[in-house]
């Protein structure tokens, strides 16, 4: 068994890019990652790729170079990138390869998941009336959680406000304009208690990560970042998730709880040791809920932590320093690899204006894909 290191990361900006395909964005991300690693494409021994909109991301090898490498396509909803990361890391960890790449890419149409009938098979008025299943579920879940744990509606706005401020410091983010809390609260209500600006936007982008055997990393970089754990878990019967089977919702916890516990146990690290955190903030309520599910606080403590600035870039537990999904949007296949790109930059001290203070050594990333798949990754210097 080999330890695994990340030696290169690459990102195509997230947003809207008319006339550019998801595959072309993926090529840009791969090119940036291999340049960051200081290697050539021919040094890559295998690849893993994931996408929602591209059925065969393996075809990207025809665009970057037909070198004959094995390439595996993966898909796991919003946890696609965690699955790609795990498959790539495991191929190296188990000794089958010395160096590989994970890439994620997507190009979602405007209104994806809510208004595009061709994509979701529903008429546009479902979105206009706030009746789309996933967003409706997110609203119901957030409403119940806030009610049960005494968290205010304004705390949701504080999450969005923080992430958009962080996004303004990120040249690769989709939304780069800060927004005050009242504007967020007073924007159109989509699925109570979530207003328009409390949801992320499906968009376009790509990200890639180059990994190698840790004992070889010094050949390529003097700042390796080590993959300590990647864990993926699905929900159990009774968990309160989208499309849940019939059972009392108190019967079991969400899959993020199991994925996070497994990752911390494998890495031999406690949540209190994490310096920088990336959480799936598909909506503002999700970031709040995942703070507790991942083990960073108790249920209900989020109100005080967020109010006191704990989750800010300069706080004690910085969350979504690059703006998260709320600022970057979510091209599904690329989203989780964007999280790793940000953590690697933070751990290297290369995050520019959004660099957290001190000498960060541990990063944590979490993904949640409906109808109930969670992925967690722990990186260290």
Automatic annotation (TrEMBL):
Keywords: Acyltransferase, Transferase. The keyword Transferase applies. Gene3D superfamilies: 3.40.47.10. It is an enzyme of class 2 (transferase). The keyword Acyltransferase applies. Transmembrane segments: none annotated. InterPro entries: Thiolase, Thiolase-like, Thiolase_C_2, Thiolase_N. This is 3-ketoacyl-CoA thiolase. It holds the Pfam family Thiolase_C_1. It comes from the Bacteria. GO terms for molecular function: acetyl-CoA C-acyltransferase activity. Its EC number is 2.3.1.16. Residues 4-173 form the Thiolase N-terminal domain. Residues 255-378 form the Thiolase C-terminal domain.
